[in-house]
Write a structure and sequence with these properties.
InterPro entries: His_Pase_superF_clade-1, His_PPase_superfam, NUDIX_hydrolase-like_dom_sf, NUDIX_hydrolase_CS, NUDIX_hydrolase_dom, Nudix_hydrolase_domain. Keywords: Hydrolase. The chain is α/β, with parallel strands linked by helices. It contains ten helices and 13 strands. Helix content is 33%, strand content 27%. The strands form two sheets. Strands 1, 2, 3, 4, 5, 6 and 7 form a seven-stranded mixed beta sheet that branches. The chain has a six-stranded mixed beta sheet with strand order 10-9-11-8-12-13, with helices on both faces. The protein is globular, with a radius of gyration of 20 Å.
Length: 312
């Protein structure tokens, strides 16, 4: 059986005259109207693909919002194409900075109402993605932000380390994991980086800090030492992040991650469940992206995505 082809895209949206409009593209080669998307490059993750393809096809720099679903369909070659989609709010700055010009792939881009898009899109599978977005709109969930719970990269084992637990460094594998996570983490355009003060956590977020120019904030309250000694302060750290409504990366430790997930649920009035433990059960260098509504706090956790480390 031939291998599937993976692709990713985004349903870009903005508010114009108090009405939501979405972006469709008119493709030159196929003469169709569709949602922008493109194939995954070797070594690239799906979120990174979605951001890159939107930039290449529409000239817009975006941050991903909530996942909207997956389309799969057969190609003429007999292979299956599987496309992952996210919502992506486009701000005025991105519009002003757009570099789009008609090209051999995209003849035109057009902002249209949800109603017009429904009759405009060539493929029913695209309408299904539009349906998923419209369901969020009906719930009052439009603008969202992400709290990304990141487990530090692989560290030197306790038994092999002479210093304190908090001073354990990353292994070479851990360093690769930390660097490899950066392109995917940047797909949600985090505005803050919060980290345990343990060396292995500070080192894990260093590549992301270098790539974004964001200075990490060290929070002893989410460290493993504080957790084990009963002086952790996860609740106030998470509460502050939920109130700020800005996307943030929080780098912590395996034993602390379940508490981080639980506090996000409590801070947003979300019913707890086994899904929180699943999202917290991360390999070193892995992370979970928790999507929250910036416009309707009572909606709780909108969705959670979990990613394995990109390298290592």
């Amino acid at each position: 059986m031939s291998l599937a082809i993976y692709a990713a895209g985004a349903l870009c949206w903005r508010v114009v005259d108090e009405k939501i409009v979405v972006l469709v593209v008119h493709r030159t080669k196929y003469g169709d109207v569709t949602i922008p998307k493109g194939k995954v490059d070797p070594g690239e993750t799906l979120p990174a693909t979605a951001v890159r393809e939107i930039r290449e096809e529409t000239g817009l720099a975006i941050a991903l919002g909530v996942p909207l679903g997956v389309s799969s369909y057969p190609l003429s070659s007999g292979r299956e194409k599987i496309v992952h989609y996210w919502a992506a709010e486009v701000d005025d700055h991105a519009i002003e900075q757009s570099t789009f010009v008609p090209n051999s792939e995209i003849a035109a881009i057009e902002w249209v109402s949800l109603k017009k898009a429904r009759g405009y899109l060539t493929y029913e599978r695209d309408v299904e993605i539009l349906d998923a977005f419209e369901a969020l709109v009906r719930q009052g969930i439009t603008s969202t932000f992400a709290l990304i719970a990141l487990r530090h990269g692989k560290a030197e084992p306790r038994g092999d380390w002479d210093g304190t637990d908090a001073s354990r460094p990353l292994t070479e594998r851990g360093v690769r994991q930390a660097a490899g996570d950066v392109p995917t983490l940047m797909a949600w355009r985090p505005r803050r980086i919060i980290t345990s003060d343990a060396v292995r956590c500070v080192a894990t977020v260093a590549p992301l800090a270098a790539a974004t120019g964001i200075k990490p904030r060290r929070e002893p309250g989410i460290s493993q030492d504080a957790y084990e000694e009963g002086r952790g302060d996860v609740r106030s750290v998470i509460g502050k992040r939920v109130r700020s409504r800005k996307s943030a990366v929080l780098c912590s430790h395996g034993p602390v991650l379940p508490e981080i997930m639980r506090e996000i649920a409590l801070a947003t009035g979300t019913m707890p469940g086994a899904y929180l433990n699943d999202a917290a059960d991360l390999d070193t260098g892995g992370f979970s992206v928790v999507h929250l509504s910036a416009t309707n706090p009572s909606s709780g956790i909108v969705s959670i995505e979990t990613y394995a480390p990109a390298a290592g």
